[in-house]
Amino acid sequence: MMNEAGGVTDESNLAQLIVEGDAARRLIPVILDLEYKDRKRELGGFLAELHNSGEIALLSNDNLEAIRRLEHNEFWIIFGALSDAIEHVKDDYPAVQRFAECLVERAGNDGASNTPFVSFVRWCEKHPSKAREIILGAKDGQADCQRSCVFALQGLNDFGCLVDFVGDYRAEIRSIGFRALGRLKNMTSKDDQTGIDACLSEIQSPSSDDARNAAIEAVFRIWDKEAGKEKYRQDEVIKSILAQPTDEDLVRLCAMLFYHKNASTGQTISAVLSRSQSISSSFETASQWIDHALTWKDDRWSFKEVVAFIEALVPRFEEPAKSKQFHSFCEWVWKEPANASYLFARWLNSGDFSLCSFLAEMVSGGDKGVALPLLPQDLPHEAADQVFLARKCIGFLWLHEITAASILLSLVEHGHPNAVPEVEGLLWEPLLLSYSSELRPYLEQQASSASPTVAKASQDLIARHKAYIEGLRNAEEISELEPSNEARRAAAIKDHQRNTDIQKQARKMSIFGDMFHTATMLYGRKSFSMITGADGKKFPSITPLSEQSYSFEFPRLSVVDPVGFNRLLLVCRVEQRKEK
Q: InterPro entries given for it (predicted)?
């Protein structure tokens, strides 16, 4: 019996289809077809029932091979049903384990790839005797049992059994125990403390690198479950790890801050950020974990400590840093004006090319025309340093004139008296001389600023710019600039018309002209075309056209004095602070 969508509605008919498919060695294609027609049906439990009754062999090698041969989209259509079936089947653990491992291997790096193992844990819960077989096999050194022993320990949920593993003299057995530690349900505070004590002992006197790494991950899992509680022996554990850390240790700690966000105290986060600045490899990976872990509303995180961490690693990236690599950090910067002021003042004053380029990347990824006033406490004290900051601002932020002008006006307002004249000079040239369409209105707003210094500087710049524009208009007729713009335009129109006539004549005389279709686009307010209907009749179709425009202000100095302008920007970017 079929429903309107073509799906099977009768359970007996459904069972018959599946049984016949398995007999013909086409069980996986049949399941795929059923799932494709009706994704709402919970097929996993039904498949397990048929397997348990002996009507089909869901876990057979033929079906495993069929799963491996599936296309990507086909696999994910049946992935959920096959994963759900695992916990309901009744079979020996090797067959169930192979089936779960096949699904996980085929799923690859997808976020849901671990689902079959979750079902395998529930299978171990329902079959404790089978779980104990796996545990005994792991202790006897059986490789297949050691691969799945973590799930067996988790399903058995026996802390006493787990303690035997973490206390074993063999490193591979201890690793299994630490990987299961923190995953058990209903652990008491005493159990947690016992587990943390075992982890600390392994970290201080490791039996193997793998066991030590498993202990680090386990202790964070335990702390993560103790949200709001005092973190038992956390200071000792972190000090032991950071005493002589490898790059792998530091990257792992950064990852732990992300995976277990409730596990660490503010002191631990500060210690990890500080120590990770000395990492000698995997800079992008460590930065990625920290950015993922950032929660800007969390008081445990210090903005200045995060800035120090990022500025230590970004200059060592193989490729220039992009704002999308630091999404959480950039969001934190723009949420608080004080943060943006601190960051831009610090990094522009450093003069580091990578950091300043990253600032330009951040501004490019934000709102166009954002103002960024610097706070007085963030500015350097010396006049030479303030001028250096202003020149770096011009060199790296010149495409964002509003942002650059707001920073320079902050220097005018709060800066050293000896630095103000040069900063005002940079506001005039190259900023205002190059940009006027958006910068001029911004300065007009600042002319009525509550700060007398900013208001006067803005008024002077506006008056100077007005005189400059009037001077250009008065000097339109200059003999050195002959021919005039009108004459140049007329000559260009004539040349264009001549070229068009030549092309038309060439097409007309060409022996290949009739071989190609020629279309002419007419510009107007509407488009007109004839449509042929189903009955052969033609009728007109008129479509209104709308104008789409995009404007971009090209820096005036790049036209008037391109060599001098590019030289100024280059010097502002690469120049270094004079040694005192």
A: ARM-type_fold
